[in-house]
Structures are given as C-alpha cells and as structure tokens.
Amino acid sequence: MIKTIKYDNKDSLFFCSDLHHCHSRDFVLEPRGYKTAQEAEEGLVFTWNSQVDADATVYHLGDIVVGARPNGLDALESLLDRLKFKEIYLMSGNHPSGWNKLYEKCFNTDGLAEIDGYGRATLEYKGRKIHFIPNYYEIIIGHKLIVLSHYPISSWNKVGKGSFMLHGHCHNNYKEGQYQSKNGKILDIGVESALSYSKREKSLFSYEDVLHIMNTKNIVQVDHH
Fold it and tell me: Among 16, 175, 201, 208, which lies 20 to 30 A Cα-Cα from 52?
C-alpha cells in the first residue's frame, strides 16, 4: 500500500530527475549542450548549486547515476558531496547504479537508518539526510496531492480532481509531460525539461515553477477517478 506524507513547507523545495551522472552517450549529452560526461557534471553541479541552497529539500525521481559500474557507489557519493541540499529523496529509477549500494548502507549504520510506514528508508549522510523512496510515491503540500513516479502515468490518483503527476524517465520526449502541453496536469521534471523551461539556466524545478506550469494545464479526466 502506498501512503501519503504531508509536507507543509513550500520554500526551498525542488524536483528533478534523470541527472544521468557519468553517462557519456551523445543522446544524453547533446540535448543538454555538453560534449563530455565531465563537462556535463560540472555544468549540472553549477546549475544545481546556483538554484538550491543548503537548507533545501529535493526530490530526485530516478536515474541519478548511469554508466558508472562497477564504481556506481563512489560516483554517487562524489556527486552528492558536491550538491547542496539538506534532505534529498531518491528513487532508483530503471538505472540504480550506486543507489542500491548506498541503500544497503541503511542497514549497516548501527541503527542510524529507519524504515517508516511510507516505504522510505533514511540514511544520515555527513550531516544531511538521504531518503530512499520507491518509484511511485505520493506527497501532500498544503491540500495539494502530488503523485511522484519515475515513469509517467496516464491515470493517477485523483487525476480528475486536479492532483499533479510529476515524472522523469522520458527526457522531455513524452508529449503530455512537456511543460508546454495543456493536456492534463502532468509534468516531466527531468533535466532536459528543466533546462528547456529555464533556457538552460536551471536543472531543477522549484515548487513555484511547478505551480506556475500546472496553472496553465487543464484537468483531463481519463476515467471515473
């Protein structure tokens, strides 16, 4: 069973997905305007830290490291050490390189980890918190239900009542999830989408960005929900 969590603080709240740290394939680098994985790392760390402060909460919806085997854990920890945040929620996505090994540390920390009723494991990490969450998750901000999923879903919880669907995975290629689309309150919050929306100035969406975009989208009732 998936439970919801309540999150009342709207300040310093950000969403992103599919950083693909260490990924050197052209189909990832070129749309982002980079030539090498190292150049992409420097660029994305810069845009992240220019946008996010040390007290921020970030939801990253999967595929944070890709192509770093067998050094996925080292790559992920090195990246996290460079990024600003106070708490980060990490989905594994369909490329769990590094995520699995870091998740295992939750069970080797002399009781520092906790598994709560939301399917969330928490790791104390160098004075900050990393929350490992499943690839489908729900949060409530104020009275707004937000469904978070690595993969886009066409019919999500309370779709006909104005709830939001935020997803990754598609690298801004899923038409309904594009920020310009009016067809449903669904948004791809991946890196390509954020870079496009911000004219390459941001790699994440703030909660205010999400609200602004969703206010331009129509509620589409695809079934009886």
Answer: 175
CA neighbor of 186 nearest in space, from 208, 160, 224: 160
User: Which CATH topology does 4-214 take?
Assistant: Purple Acid Phosphatase; chain A, domain 2 (3.60.21)
What's the chain's average pLDDT?
Answer: 91
Q: Give the dihedral of Cα atoms 165, 168, 170, 175; nearest 10 deg.
A: 30
pTM: 0.93
- Residue 139 vs residues 43, 112, 200: alpha-carbon distances, Å: 30, 24, 28
